[in-house]
Amino acid sequence: MSCKFRLLLENAEQMLIVCRKEEEFLLRDGMQQLAVLEKASLVVGNDGFIKAVGPADLIRNQFSNESFETKIDCMGKCVFPGFVDAHTHPVWAGDRVNEFAMKLAGATYMDIHQAGGGINYTVEHTTAASDEELFRSFKQRLTRMLRAGTTLVECKSGYGLKLDTELKMLRVIERAQKELDIGISSTYCGAHSVPKGKSAVEAADDIICNHLPALKQLALNGEIHVDNIDVFCERGVFDLESTKRILQAGKAIGLHLNFHGDELSPMNSAEMGALLGAHAVSHLEEVSDEGITAMAKAKCSAVLLPTTAYILSKDMLDAGVIVSLGSDFNPNAYCLSMPMVMHLACVNMKMSLSEALAAATINAAYSLGRSHTHGSLEVGKQGDVVVINASRWEHLIYQFGGHQELIEYVIIKGKIA
Ligand code: NIG
Ligand code: FE
């Protein structure tokens, strides 16, 4: 006989609900006072969505006659919503371990980029790689992310630049969405670098006239479905005007705007993102005060990336910006673990433990337009859950590395992944 419910997690020492009352995101005060239940249980239905969450006694009484496909005793353990990684570049061939040494010896990101390394190097190798090769390494990376508790991840293209390789990357992402359990929000990032021999204006024209119409057609055919559009808005890459044209054209075919801005130089990207209704702007190391205010007003999330940059989150949090976190996994920032990202956010960006957790769950889900289904443990949301073997939740961030030992279960739609 089939069971009525898919999963029961019983008696957790602490259950990190994160936020209540269908909040779409948390601002500073909410991030500092997360909803946490002591001695709590959670039920996921056969449809993969959360049916009940609350004090263990109450759930026991309510469900005493019900059957569950899986029951996990969480005595001595803590339960979290699956982590959401708001920014990654995970499809590529050819690592850049040598650049790590160059940077330690004093080279800047732009020095390496302009000498033909950086993104251009990865573009060459990704262009030469087969679909199968790309899929294999991508799958391994996603598996490692999942083991570290990520259940929803934003994945960008952007190491093709030319249409055929961009589409190859997006197909690889599409295949992973079909074959793997981990949730994916896919991003077309064809404007990640200006191809050799072209100006930013010419590259933007090509994207607007050729790439985006092709994406629109492939979506209509049901072949490739893309959620977001990204541009590297940076001095010497895509200027503000070209970025704006590309983003507007992306918006016109239904993509969410989610782009790299104000990273290495102040570009007024945040102001523009707010004006265009962007879901999120990433990096923001060089954001202006006006940009911060504009983002707060427009409810545009700031995706901070502690593996790449060390900026302080305080100004943004104080100004009422929806702060999220991402690993920025890419050949220049080799980190697949959101618990490590949260740790770095605390130590280097001066976030509190609870701010970091909110930024890596509900707010990251918001930045991807998914906070109605992800990012907190509430009835009606997807049953994506992480169980750790510690009786205080802060161990998740306090322990740096070694998460294979700490994370006991990663669960997607109520099934152990
Ligand atoms: O977010 N800034 C641009 N994009 C990436 C780096 C990509 C790369 O270097 O391959 C980032 O850090
Ligand atoms: Fe990035």
TrEMBL record:
Keyword Metal-binding (UniProt): yes
Q: What is its EC number?
A: 3.5.2.7
List the catalytic activities from the record: 4-imidazolone-5-propanoate + H2O = N-formimidoyl-L-glutamate
Give cofactor(s), names only. Fe(3+); Zn(2+)
InterPro entries membership:
Amidohydro-rel (IPR006680), HutI (IPR005920), Metal-dep_hydrolase_composite (IPR011059), Metal_Hydrolase (IPR032466)
Q: In which pathway does it act?
A: Amino-acid degradation; L-histidine degradation into L-glutamate; N-formimidoyl-L-glutamate from L-histidine: step 3/3
| Cellular component GO terms held in the UniProt record | cytoplasm
Question: What is the enzyme's main class?
Answer: hydrolase
Matches recorded under Pfam families: Amidohydro_1
Q: Which GO terms describe its molecular function?
A: imidazolonepropionase activity; metal ion binding
Q: Where is each Amidohydrolase-related domain found? A: 313-416
Example GO biological process: L-histidine catabolic process to glutamate and formate
Q: Which UniProt keywords apply?
A: Histidine metabolism, Hydrolase, Iron, Metal-binding, Zinc
The UniProt family comment states: Belongs to the metallo-dependent hydrolases superfamily. HutI family.
Protein name, per record: Probable imidazolonepropionase
Q: Which organism is it from?
A: Leptobrachium leishanense
